[in-house]
Structures are given as C-alpha cells and as structure tokens.
Amino acid sequence: MTTEVRVPTLGESVTEATVATWFKKPGDAVAVDEMLCELETDKVTVEVPSPAAGVMGEIVAKEGETVGVNALLATISASGEKPAAKSEAPKAEAPKADKPAGKGGSGGKVDVMVPTLGESVTEATVATWFKKVGDSVAQDEMLCELETDKVSVEVPSPAAGVLAEIVAAEGSTVQANGKLAVISGEAGAAAAASAPAEAPAAAPAQKAGEDAPSAKKAMAEAGLSADQVTGTGRDGRIMKEDVKSAIAATRAAPTQAEAPAMPRAPVAADDAAREERVKMTRLRQTIARRLKDAQNSAAMLTTYNEVDMKAIMDLRNEYKELFEKKHGVKLGFMSFFTKACCHALQEVPEVNAEIDGTDIVYKNFVHMGIATGTPTGLVVPVVRDADRMSFADIEKAIAEKGARARDGKLSMAEMQGGTFTISNGGVYGSLMSSPILNPPQSGILGMHKIQDRPVVVGGQIVIRPMMYLALSYDHRIVDGKGAVTFLVRVKEALEDPRRLLMDL
C-alpha cells in the first residue's frame, strides 16, 4: 500500500511554496506525524508531517522546486514493501542502514535521537559523552549532555544494551531530532563497536545544500551576501526569515558595521606555553551577543538612588520564624523588592513596556525576571504574574527557579516572556554597578550590597544599613522623569513597607 504526501493548505491567499529541506531520504523509515520536509512561503515556513508510518518512497518535489497547494510531494510505502526509489540501493551500505529504535529495527539496534530542545530551539552542541563506544548501558541511563543557548539537556538511553556507535562527537552541532548514537543489544556488539574503524569523527554541521531560492532572491534584492546572514535552516541553510532578520538588524543599527576582531597583543613563547584556550560555551556566546545587542539597539541610561533597609530588616527579623513555619520558605529581601517594583510599575507603566517597530506595547501584567548566576553563566528565570502573587508565593517561586537554574534544569519557556528584571549583584559584594537591559525589556533594577553608612535622619547623624539602587532604562521609551519617579517609588515602598499594604 502506498500513501501520498501532498502539500497542505498554506494559508489564506497563499497558493504556492518552495521545498526548502527534506529531512528524510528514500528508504528511510518514518513514523506517523514525523516531519518529512519543510516548505517555505512568502510569509511562513511550513513543516510537512508524515500521514502514515512506513518507508520513504519516491521524492517527487526536490529541494528548491516550487509546488502548489495539494501537489504531490512524495510517497510512503508500507513497512513490508520496498520503495521504488530505493530499488537500486547499493548493497554495500546495508550493514549501516539501521532502523530507528523501537520501530521494528532489525538486528536489535536502537537509534539515540536528539530530544525536544524547546520552543524555537533548532540545534544544540554535544557537550559531554558519559559513555564511550563499547560500554554497556542501562535503559534511561544518561548517555550524554547537550548544550543549547539557554539550557543543558541530558539524553537518556532509550534501551539497554551496548553503545555501538557515537554519531555526534563532543563539540559537534546537532539539529533537533538528529541522530546521536546507536545502541546495540546483540552479544557481539561490544567487540565490533570497540573497533577503531567504528568510532566516527563527527564534525560540526556544515551546509549540505544550496540556500532556499526565495532567500537567494531576498538577499539579492537587499544587497546582502551569504556571509552577512546567519542560516537557521537544516545544516545552516539560509531561509527567507533569516534574510528578513538580517535586514531588520541592519536597519536598526545602520551605522554599526561588524568590527573586525581586535588583534591579540604579541605573546612571548614562554607565556604562550602557559596559556589555556577554551572554546566559549553556547550559553556564554549567547550572553555576550545579547548584551552587546542591548548596548547597540537601546538608548540605555542609568539613574541611581539609595534606600535605608532598616525597616525591612526589622520587619524580616520580627516575622521570619513565623513566616517560615507557616509557608515552609524563608523570608528574604527579593519578595520585598519584587512587590515594590510591581507597585512602582503601576505608576510608571512605560518601564514595563517594550518597543515594537514604531509602536509601544504596554504590559498590563508583570512577569518578573530574576537574574541568577549559575556555574555556566547568567540566566534569567521568569516569575509569571508576580503582581498577583503574595510574599510567600514569590519567595517559593524564586527559590524553586533559582535551584533549577543552578542545576541546569530550566526549560526555555521558563526564561521567556519577562517584562522587567531584577539583578542582585549585592550577593557577590558589589557596592554599585550599572546593569545592562535584557531586551526587549525597557528596564532593569540593580540591587547592591547592604552596608552600614552614616546618614542624616531628623537632623541627626545615625548609622543605617544602606543599599544603592540602580535603574537602567531605555531612554527611547522612558523619560528621565519616569525613571526617577519609578526609583523613588521603589525607595519609598522599601523604607516604609506599610505603603505596599495601603497601596500608596
């Protein structure tokens, strides 16, 4: 039995598309709803799932071809049938044509695939292999760790057996749903797998084909070359959306051409021998890129103030034991600062807004980002609807997300959608700093070290626990008056927490 794969409905008024990428080739086993190819229209990219399980047959529409709605793309043959497109398949490759795990693959071999990486994440870097070729593995035992722009993902073994082949070596880039390794359950697999010839030397993904035709056309119209556009398609192929992103970046910062890398100063031979060169992690590269983008795109300015922490410290000392006994979580300073910021954002809503083209988008909610240091770099988990939460709920959310951030267990969804951010450099001893915006947000509050200082209160010089506060803001949307007002409201709420109760 043969099943036809046809072009799905592409959207209102869209009548044709370009075949951008085929994820399968004739002869490959496919499951129901497994992605077969990607189509590209003027507006969107459409993935085409398999309508049935079986074996990939003939590919009718090749990559780069233009197809209409309901046009025939390919055929799927039943598992027991031999596809026409593979009738001349070379027999020399048969020993390596392992079928996917748990899908009737012969020889007891199971493929280890890249798991779901998160919304909008299409690739990852293989950070560490915990097993080597020839090692025995148990089902669900951790095989390797993948690193994306934001999180680390551990890959468990889908079956018990022997690690027969590592397809993606450490340091290589793999696509979502790509193949990582092969697990064999056969008795002789260990000896065969340990042979040097079986150990692949996988290299980082390279472009395997031409860029999408519509992307070429768009680059030509915009006067861009391929090296000016970062491809996000399969194997680095440039898609039309990539060209649009490159054009938007050029318009946003027309005078900011890519500066050549700063040449290294001459290094003596004996000094060079004592240097250590370590490749930046994907997380660190993303942090560096986003921070620089924030400086390049926003008119960033910082205003400062100081707050007397005595009222909060007295209140905390008085109720911390009762609070922990009732709610099961310690009463910290972050809940006070979160509440104070939510209160101030109601009065100065532009600090909680963002710029979208020529529009200002005001957020009638507060998704509070809490900057958290981890062994691999800074991440910003988001506490959603913080303006509706109690002190206890905020403390619980911050503690739980902070622990998961340090363990590398945060999902992409938990780090997206923030509207304002709080960064506490005081935990590291910082007395004063200027935090950098977390785009597309328009404001970030920097907390600092609490330090006893002499201040004047009621005409008398007294010693008080003082903290410097810093608000960095996007001057394109937030005026100086609004920024100063926001910081003053935060200061007032912290120095007299009763104002939060009375909504003053």
What is the topology?
Elements: E1 2-6, E2 16-22, E3 29-30, E4 35-40, E5 45-49, E6 54-59, E7 66-68, E8 72-77, E9 109-113, E10 123-129, E11 136-137, E12 142-147, E13 152-156, E14 161-166, E15 173-175, E16 179-184, H1 189-193, H2 213-222, H3 240-252, H4 269-272, H5 282-297, E17 300-308, H6 310-327, H7 334-347, E18 353-356, E19 359-362, E20 368-370, E21 372-374, E22 377-379, E23 382-383, H8 391-406, E24 420-424, E25 443-447, E26 451-457, E27 460-474, H9 480-495, H10 498-502
Parallel strand pairs: 20-24, 24-25
Antiparallel strand pairs: 1-8, 2-4, 2-7, 3-6, 4-5, 6-8, 9-16, 10-12, 10-15, 11-14, 12-13, 14-16, 17-27, 18-19, 20-23, 21-22, 25-27, 26-27
Helix pairs in contact: 2-3, 7-8, 7-9
Write structural notes for this entry.
The protein is an alpha+beta fold. The chain folds into 3 domains: 1-97, OB fold (Dihydrolipoamide Acetyltransferase, E2P); 99-205, Beta Barrel (OB fold (Dihydrolipoamide Acetyltransferase, E2P)); 285-502, 2-Layer Sandwich (Chloramphenicol Acetyltransferase). It has helices spanning 189-193, 213-222, 240-252, 269-272, 282-297, 310-327, 334-347, 391-406, 480-495, 498-502, and strands at 2-6, 16-22, 29-30, 35-40, 45-49, 54-59, 66-68, 72-77, 109-113, 123-129, 136-137, 142-147, 152-156, 161-166, 173-175, 179-184, 300-308, 353-356, 359-362, 368-370, 372-374, 377-379, 382-383, 420-424, 443-447, 451-457, 460-474. The strands form 7 sheets. Strands 17, 20, 23, 24, 25, 26 and 27 form a 7-stranded mixed beta sheet that branches. It has a 4-stranded antiparallel beta sheet with strand order 1-8-6-3, with no helix packed on it. The chain has a 4-stranded antiparallel beta sheet with strand order 5-4-2-7, with no helix packed on it. 32% of the residues are buried. Residues 80-109, 202-233, 251-272 are annotated as: Disordered. Its EC number is 2.3.1.61. Its cofactor is (R)-lipoate.
